[in-house]
Amino acid sequence: MRPAALDGVQGRAQPGFCCGVYGGTIMTAVLADIEEAMKDVVDPELGINVVDLGLVYGIHVDEDNVATLDMTLTSAACPLTDVIEDQARQALCTGPGGGLVSDIRINWVWLPPWGPDKITDEGRDQLRALGFNV
């Protein structure tokens, strides 16, 4: 996941990026906070967070402070979407002051397909520490 970036046109994100617009203001700080909080969401099978695994493709926050997360899984047949959704809701919607956002929606996407190239350097280090060859 990369921080939000714009292509020079107010409110239009580059391909692969999303941005939140609230009252005409780009919410890059909020998006960075959401991305950081999503590091508390751990893939139940691998034990690595979904950000460093490269499973979060995009984040958008609407005017009602609802975050839509474009996410994928390592396999379309993964039965653990409910677990990941529950963890994401816990990470983003709870805490002091009620959380970062009022609610979340996860948009499960399969294109582009996930591959090991999406894993961050930190994710690779974590996987190597667990004995994976990446």
Note the topology.
Elements: E1 21-22, E2 25-26, H1 28-37, E3 56-61, E4 66-71, H2 81-93, E5 103-108, H3 121-129
Parallel strand pairs: 4-5
Antiparallel strand pairs: 1-2, 3-4
Please explain how this structure is put together.
The protein is built from three helices and five strands. The chain has 134 residues and is α+β, with helices and mostly antiparallel strands. A three-stranded mixed β-sheet has the order 3-4-5, with helices on one face. It has a two-stranded antiparallel ribbon with strand order 1-2. The protein is globular, with a radius of gyration of 15 Å. The protein starts with 20 loop residues before the first strand and ends in a 5-residue tail after the last helix.
Relative strand content: 15-25%
Helices and strands, in order, run as EEHEEHEH
For the record, give the distance between the C-alpha atoms at the N and C termini, rounded to a whole number: 18 Å
Physical arrangement of strands within the biggest beta sheet: 3-4-5
Arithmetic mean of pLDDT = 82
What structural class results from the helix and strand content?
A: alpha+beta
Name the overall outline: globular
Largest β sheet strand count, sense and barrel closure: 3 strands, mixed
Number of continuous helical runs: 3
Beta-strand segment tally: 5
Report the radius of gyration as a whole number of Å. Answer: 15 Å
In which range does the helix fraction lie? 10-25%
List low-confidence stretches: 1-26
